[in-house]
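Suppose you are handed only these lines of text.
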Amino acid sequence: MQKLIITAALTGAEVTREQQPNLPLTPDEIAEAAYEAYKAGASIVHIHARDKDGNPTQDYEVYKEIKEKIEAKCPVIFQPSTGGAVWHSLEERLQPVELKPEMATLSAGTCNFGSDVFMNSQEYIEKFAKRMKELGVKPEIEVFERGMINNALSLVKKGLIDEPLHFDFVMGVPGAITGELRDLIYLVESIPKGSTWTVAGIGRYELPLATAAIILGGHVRVGFEDNIYYRKGELAKSNAQLVERIVRLAHELGRDVATPDEAREILSIPK
Ligand code: KMH
Ligand code: ZN
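From them, the structure of the protein bound to zinc ion can be written out as follows.
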């Protein structure tokens, strides 16, 4: 089995300080959280920037500052969001791709997102994929619903993304696919052979889906973007604490944890 790639989704666009007092918001806080997650065993950090008031922003300069601050601390893979918040425009969302990060997310379709709609028309998806390809950015294909896999495969046919593909199954968003194990198996069996996949279970789904991914040969995403609790009723102290638990579980289940360079190799990202 491949070594386990752990992604730490540090901040997200939706969580607030009121909900999670230890949520990293400023570039310095995000860089420090990235460093702690890296030391704990994360090889990728998934980043959402916030503005000076703590609101989600896709501003190029803020992402640049975060990227530089993380790179000064550690060799973890910097993976900015192109999903942003549901109200961000296409142009806003695309900005961090211009930094030519090693990876960025590519949401592969539209779904309900709680009481909002997360809009990703085929036209959007193709524009994002094209720009990522031009700049040599590896897409992590975000799948919130089964049909999004078909959308991603249409991009392969059009030459807009290259195999091997890497998927992130985001499971348990209210309005999209559930976080039940049955649905994870369904998604895993629906992607092309030779693809890699990770799973981001939302809220209470995070731990069981992570455990399943370790056993099934997938990879794992944890962090405050997806889940703010360590266990029911107990807030997590940090993103690193959530990473540490996955490392312990992986060791117990006989799976080694990948370094950033090993993750680059597994994901076919040139060094
Ligand atoms: N905040 C969500 C609306 C991504 O990062 O690419 C979208 C999201 C996906 O978080
Ligand atoms: Zn995200």
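What can we learn from it? The domain at 6-266 is CATH 3.20.20.70 (TIM Barrel). The pocket of (5S)-5-amino-3-OXO-hexanoic acid (ligand 1) is lined by residues 13, 81-83, 85-86, 105, 107, 113, 118, 142 (CB under 6 Å).
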